[in-house]
Amino acid sequence: MYYYNIFFFMVKIKFISLVHIACIAVILLSCKSTSKDEPQTDDLKTVSDIDGNIYHTVTIGTQTWMVENLKTSKYRNGDLIGTTSPSNKNISSELTPKYQWAYNGNDSNLVVYGRLYTWYTVTDSRNVAPVGWHVATDADWTLLSEYVAENLGKSLTTAKALSDSSYWNPYSAKGAIGDSILINNSTGYSALPCGYRSASGPFYGKGNYSFWWSSTNYDETKANCKSLSYDNMTLYSTKDAKSCGFSVRCVKDSK
Q1: E strand segments, 96-221
Q2: Strand 196-197 and strand 203-204: pairing?
Q3: Can you give the pTM of this predicted structure?
Q4: β-sheet bridge partners, residue 195
Q5: Which of 60, 38, 67 is nearest to 150 (CA)?
Q6: Which residues make Cβ contacts (< 8 Å) with residue 10, sequence separation at least 6?
Q7: Cα 181 to Cα 218: distance, rounded to the nearest angstrom
Q8: I want to staple 186 with a disulfide (CB 3.0 to 4.6 A). Which of 155, 167, 243, 244 is the partner?
């Protein structure tokens, strides 16, 4: 009986220890998953375009955004989106040019940076966004900016909270994207410095700037867009010529 009691006591102690360890592990995992500094990215949630390009998604506030810039070379119905030959051809005299380009005409830039599109392409009725998604409107961008400004996490400024922690050129001003880039991207939005194409042909700014179209018109020749710069801490609202080549981000349609 004496040995039986000792055995039972040791088993009980071991069981209690295992239960305590399990409880501690659950608590630690729970704390990690709810950290405000952790972007709410779910790699299992993806969407693909008509070309078969796969995009990861991130939920920021009430919105779900693509993590990568659009890469499609086709409209949703399968029609090809044209490009120019050469890639730096001047299209400033064309009335409603509908084109797409890889930066500098080099397809090796597509994997990381996506394509650059004219605004006329972005707003074509054949649609460049996957089914269930749309090109971000100016209102979408405003909602994103306002939410991020109130939920910066460890990234200090709106621009840093939206920008990827790689690819940006360095800049030594506190709060600028290019300063201490390892603390960028608390939102998981992963903005990259894709550069842009001018209507007259040249490509500029890879490593320094990013420009995205909104689908919202401004006037006959310009549309609303957003931009980030390596040497600044703000998501800028601008208006630019519709014939420029800018990046595109898509937002999931609301139910």
Answers
A1: 100-101, 116-117, 133-135, 196-197, 203-204, 209-217
A2: antiparallel
A3: 0.84
A4: 210
A5: 60
A6: none
A7: 33
A8: 155
Amino acid identity at 86: P
What is d(CA 235, CA 249) in angstroms, rounded to the nearest whole number? Answer: 14
> Cα–Cα–Cα angle for 67, 159, 240, nearest 5°?
85
Task: Count Cβ neighbours within 10 Å for each residue of 2-36 and write b for 16 or more, e otherwise.
Answer: eeeeeeeeeeeeeeeeeeeeeeeeeeeeeeeeeee
Give yes or no for a cis peptide into 39 (omega within 30° of 0): no
Query: Which parts of the chain have pLDDT scores under 70?
Result: 1-44
Question: Hey, where are the domains in the chain?
Answer: 1-34, 41-252
**Tokens at 124, concatenated:** 């074509």
- What pLDDT is recorded for position 7? 42
So what's the pLDDT on residue 10?
46
Q: Identify whether 86 is preceded by a cis peptide bond (ω within 30 of 0).
A: yes
pLDDT at 39: 52
Cα 66 to chain centroid distance, Å, stands at: 6
Report the pLDDT value the prediction gives residue 44, as an integer from 0 to 100. Answer: 60
Q: In angstroms, rounded to a whole number, what is the distance separating the alpha carbons of residues 162 and 145?
A: 9
CB 189 within 8 A of CB 65: yes
Structure-block tokens of residue 146: 């306002």
Other beta carbons within 10 angstroms of residue 127's beta carbon come to 16
CA 209 vs CA 107, 169, 213: distances in Å: 19, 9, 14
Pair 148, 159: CB distance under 8 Å: no
Query: 205 — alpha (psi -120 to 50), left (phi > 0) or beta?
Result: left
List the end-to-end C-alpha distance of the chain, in Å, as a whole number: 68
DSSP 130: P
